[in-house]
Amino acid sequence: MEIVGSPASQPCLARLNIFYNRLPTPEVQKALYTTTAGEGVSSQVGDPDFVLDLTKKNGFWQKRISNHKELYADGVRFLELELFGFSNADVTTFNFINIDGVHQ
User: The whole model's pTM is what?
Assistant: First the structure.
């Protein structure tokens, strides 16, 4: 998953949740990812939120959606994203969100 937008000049966070197959609750994260201020995306085990640090200077946030096994015909048909929780005086603009699959 990649997100490109305008970086904030003041401390600012956004949260992102992933929903599979139109379920009403977001996918809970199974891995811990930490980041220092201004570097990107973090998550906590058992919490559905990816936390984006919007002060990252290049305005590019990237995260591998881990622990996802493709089950082909029985696998995920729909993937929805929810962005929320902006807290700052800066205007926040996202230019695009890209979700890309890789065959391994």
Answer: 0.80
